[in-house]
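Chapter review: from sequence to fold.
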Amino acid sequence: MLPFSVCIFPPLFWPIFTAFSSSFRLFYPSYHVPFIISLHRMLASRLTSNAYLQLQNIIDAHTTLTGHFNVNTVTPNCTGVLAEPYLPWCPQRPHIKEYLVPLNLMEITYPQLVAQYGTVMKSGGHYSPPTCQSTENLAIIIPYRNRTRNLHILLNNLLPFLWRQQVQFTVFLAEQTKDYDFNKGLVFNAAYRESQKLGKFTCYIMQDTDVIPMDYRNLYKCDDTKPRHLCQAVGQKEWPKRLKYAGSFGGAIAFRPKHFEIANGFSVSYYGWGLEDDDLWLRFRKFAFRIARYPFLIGKYHRLDHPKQTHNPRWTKLKRTIYQRRGKEGLNTLNYTLVASERKELYTRFLIQPPPPPPSIYGQLTTVASPTAKITQAGSPAAGN
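The token string follows.
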């Protein structure tokens, strides 16, 4: 135990005491640090600025060595006053008795969503658990265009789903302009790069707008050694159908930034629906990443109805060249224009304009819409996956 005499040590000698802070840590191990915090809070106003900074360095060094600075119990300070308690770590597996998610598939408007969730969510779509410290900082990226109804239903179910899992997260809406066919891989890569400018995220989730998780045991967290495919079965019944083949990699994916960087991100060559998710699976497999998967009963997702998308007109050619393109295009060739960036109540919105489709793959294709087509206004999206 730290000697009580330290509490009444004459203030004149505090600068000398703190000058030996590195040696002090050796004599008083980490379990004495809560006492040091209480001590430092009480005497902060009495120390010279130099000595105060040195005492603060003790705390910073302990944080670096142990990975966190968490006091789960109330500790007395020198005056007998109870020090402020610190939040405990959130459980790795939340304590949830009912596994089945009560889906709400009713149509809902964005103002209704804000009225329901805006008091809990912070500006930009950020959320932190109020009773514990999350071990993850998630970036939920939703590639998006022309699916307003699906987006709102997804948010109405996904936000309370993530709250129950006690994770810290920020929702990013990666919306593409109407110039060309939807390029899901490119807008995700662009949102990934833009999100890195706003904060440090430990785990990234790629979430499609048309699938909703059905089981609370489907934890939106990352594996340290391999990417995780969260979506194992999709349908509109109580027992969705299993994925048709092992390389199917869509719906919802979780990965560490280092995994995504090694794989060179999504391909940016897929204009139109199809194959971009499977291409990413092959990129991960190229670098010997095993894909983690939840059991079928846990990885169930409900699929929302939506109009059929335009299929990629060069699907066959792209499939033949998957292995040749893996290291040549992706994050390392990412090119886009950030038309708008806006912090909304429930998400941060990136409006992204891709370059024209490469003539080497698509030839001289005409655009889907004029490059000067009216861009959807924020707050009432009408453009994503």
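Two observations follow directly from the output. Confidence is low (pLDDT under 50) at residues 1-53, 61-84, 366-385. The longest strand covers residues 168-176.
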